[in-house]
Amino acid sequence: MHEFKQALANKQPLLGTFVKTPHFHNTEVLSKVGFATICLDAEHAAFDRRDLDTCILAAKANQQHVLVRIPNDHHDTILNTLDLGADGIVVPHVKTAQQLENIVKQCYYGHNGRGYAGSTRMAGYTTNNMQQNLAHNANNTVVIAQIEDIDALDQLDAICQVKGVDCLFIGRMDLTVALGETDPNAPKVLEAVTKIVQIANKYELATGMFIANLDELDHWLKQHVSLFLLGSDHSFMLAGARQLQATFKQSTRAQ
């Protein structure tokens, strides 16, 4: 089993980040840093299939584990993403166990499952045989269900028991909006997030999240949240630029 998939199963702390820019340069640069994974955000950024193709290639050239947050749970979306060589998918707005069961089925080869092609990047462009491709698919593919809707909160026990899902990723901002709040630290929001974590822990299923305030990190680690997708290429650029400006202003005042 791939070390990332195994680490998820073992609930080892894992740090990744989002990539919001649909150009391979940003992916290539961040692949040099040593993140456990990077997640191309094709849900909220302007990635088309060609962009995903080149960005996944850039990640693979640097032996970087790469996820894609896909825009929907359609069969062709899942198939294209995995054929391009993504190591896994983050699927937004998972609301029911039945929906998740169908998603998982589309991620794996088998009866009524993922369509097979031996000519893709994942398949080594025909240089791997079918047995190797089936084994790679079974042992490496990561399926992460994003929980971010009120509808899903009453379905969590069933969702957590779906065979083949590796992790629940908590969409806290969407939950904030869905619950009629504007503050992700509102009591109703924190109650919902805690509920997701506790039920997932009951079934020994990994959980992940994005947090804007890193002061929360220790708390969620103690709650056994293990996957953190923090920051993005955009936030790194903004933070670096602001730090540069602040340093420059401080130095010029001293003159």
Strand percentage, roughly? 15-25%
Write down the domain tally: 1
- What can be said about the biggest beta sheet? 8 strands, parallel, barrel
Distance between the termini: 59 Å
Shape label: globular
The succession of helices and strands, N to C, reads HEHEHEHEHHEHHEHHEHEH
Unreliable sequence segments: none
CATH topology: TIM Barrel
Structural class: alpha/beta
The named CATH superfamily: Phosphoenolpyruvate-binding domains
Helical element count? 12
CATH architecture: Alpha-Beta Barrel
Rounded Rg: 19 Å
Number of strands: 8
Q: Given this structure, which CATH class is correct?
A: Alpha Beta
Strand order of the largest sheet: 1-2-3-4-5-6-7-8
Overview of this structure, please?
With 255 residues, the chain is an alpha/beta fold. The protein has a single domain, classed as Alpha-Beta Barrel (TIM Barrel). Helices cover 46% and strands 15% of the residues. It has twelve helices and eight strands. It has helices at 3-9, 24-30, 49-61, 75-83, 97-107, 130-140, 150-153, 156-160, 172-178, 187-202, 217-222, 233-253, and strands at residues 14-19, 37-41, 66-69, 88-91, 142-147, 167-170, 206-209, 227-232. It has an eight-stranded parallel beta barrel with strand order 1-2-3-4-5-6-7-8, surrounded by seven helices. Helix 2 (24-30) runs parallel beside helix 3. The chain is globular. It comes from Brumicola pallidula DSM 14239 = ACAM 615. Keywords: Lyase, Metal-binding. One of its GO terms (molecular function) is aldehyde-lyase activity.
